[in-house]
Amino acid sequence: MQCRPETTSTAWKRGPFHFLPRGVIFGQTYEDPGIELRVFKPQSRVFTIAGAGCTARALAAAGHSVTAIDVNSRQLAYARLRAEGEPARMGVVERLLVLGRKLATIAGWSPARLAHFLSLSDGPEQAEYWDRWLDTPKWRAVFDTLLAPRLLGIFYSGPFVKALPRDFGARIRQRLRRGWSLHANRCNPYASALLLGKTSAEYGPAISPIQFACADAADYLENSQAMFDAFALSNIGDGASVAYKRRLRAAVERAAAPGAVLVTRSFAEPGPETVANWAALDRSLLWGVVEVSRIGGPAGDPLCSIC
Description:
Oligomer: single chain
Helix content: 40-55%
CATH architecture of the largest domain: 3-Layer(aba) Sandwich
Low-confidence stretches: none
Strand content: 5-15%
CATH superfamily of the largest domain: Vaccinia Virus protein VP39
CATH class of the largest domain: Alpha Beta
C-alpha cells in the first residue's frame, strides 16, 4: 500500500473528536438532500459520503444509482443498517445537541413556545416570533459561549475547530434566522430535528441497492474504474488540508463523467472562490456554504448562476 504524507490524508480518518467514540458520530445527517435531488439529472450514478445514510437513501429512493463511502467503519455500518430499514439512533452529535437543548430551556425556551414556533408556516411571522421570543439576550450568550472555538476545542480536534469562523455562534444564529424567514417550519423536518431532536426525515425504499464501501473518498476515486454523474461530498473539506483538498479535487475530476455535478457543504463562510452558494435553500439551516458546480464546466454554467 502506498504511504501518503499526512497532509494528503483526510482528517476524518481520525474523526472530529479528541476521543474515540464508542458508537456512531452522527445519528442523523444534518443536510437537505433536496439540493442534490434538484440538481442531479435523473438516474445519475452518484458518489456520496455515507455519514448517517440519509442523503444516500434519499437519492436511491429517487432512482439514482448510489455508491456511499465512509472512512469510519462504525459510521458506515450504521448507514447500511439505516438503508435496510433500521430506526435512527443517537450518535455523539445528538447527545451534544441534547445538552444544548437543556441549556436553551434554562435560557427561556419553553416547550409551549417551541411548539407554537414549529407550527408556523409564514416566513416573516416565523422571523418575528424568533426575534421576540427565542433569540433572547440570555440565549444568545449561552449559545455563543457553547460554540466559541475555544470551548469547542475541548471536544473537537484542531483541524475541525480551525475550519470554523471565530464568531461561529453568531454565524449559526444568522443562518437560523435566514432559514426561519425562508422555509415553513410546519413542513420542515430539519427544524423539529434541531429544536426537538426528532428524526429529520424518512425516505422510501431504494429503487436499486446502495453500494457501500469503507474507504477514504480520494483513495476510492483514485482507484475506482467507475465513472460518476454526480458527487455529494457533504462537508468533507472542513478540517482538511489544502493538499488533501487538491488531491480530492483531482480524484473527483478523474472519476467524473462528462457534465458531472458536484455538491459540497461547509460550516465556514463563503469565500471569494465560492462559485454558487445555495446555502439559503438548504432547509437544514446550518451551512455557510452549499456549493453547486459542474466538473470542468465554464464560469457561465447554469449551475453556477442560480443561487
